[in-house]
Amino acid sequence: MTPAEAAAAAAALRPRVEGDREQEILDAALEVLADVGYDRLTMDAVAHRAKASKATLYRRWNSKAKLVVESLSRMKTVPVMPDTGDLRTDLLTAFCGMGGLTDHDTTATLGAVLTAVSTDPEFAHEFREQVVGPKAQVSRVVFERARDRGELRPDVDLEIVVPALAGIVLHQVFIFGKQPDADLVERVIDQIILPAVRPRA
Fold it and tell me: Is residue 173 one of the residues assigned to a domain?
């Protein structure tokens, strides 16, 4: 048996990181992410914050991209799936609650990983699949239900409309420094989203 094979066999015999200990490491990763951003985050720094060895982290996550993305995906940040029977109310409910655009932790975390999305292909792929995907699906279902109720014009392109609300609000937040509060979300819904999708008189 080669030294590499021996090390792999020994690692396989060590207990898997799980339960409370796993959550402690995920929480530590989020803390380091908030402190220094993704680019400067290291497995050493997370291990130090979690009072664990770097080998412990690598037994469970083979890269910092996978560790950070799992930390983000395990946060309670997927907006609720509203079904009030009214598009405007559904949008306000989804985007102004926990995990929505007015959730400070959500927007702060997104700010911490923005550069990584464009510079780290592995992270970008995992982030889109595990974090962005579930949130985008909530928005899509909201608009699909509205379409089925007749609240949308039949020619509305959901591929463009679904991400529009988040895109406009986050542009205001990250480019112009606006506070992502309920008033901003409501104004975007009333002045841009609803006039763009509702049937013409």
Answer: yes
Local confidence pLDDT in tens for the 201 residues of the chain: 654 454 444 444 444 555 678 999 999 999 999 899 999 999 999 999 999 999 999 999 999 999 999 999 887 555 567 899 999 999 999 888 767 788 887 888 888 898 899 999 999 999 999 888 888 888 999 999 999 999 999 999 999 999 999 999 999 999 999 888 999 999 999 999 999 999 987
Record the pTM: 0.76
Tell which of 20, 37, 65 closes a domain.
Answer: 65
Joined tokens for residue 157: 């392109």
The verdict on 132 and 109 lying in the same domain is yes
Instruction: Find the Cα–Cα–Cα–Cα dihedral 52, 56, 60, 61, rounded to 10°.
Output: 70
DSSP one-letter string for 45-90: HHHHHHT--HHHHHHH-SSHHHHHHHHHHHSS-SPP----S-HHHH
Contacts of 163 (CB under 8 A, 6+ apart): 136, 139
Note whether 122 and 56 are same-domain residues. no
Domain count, the chain: 2
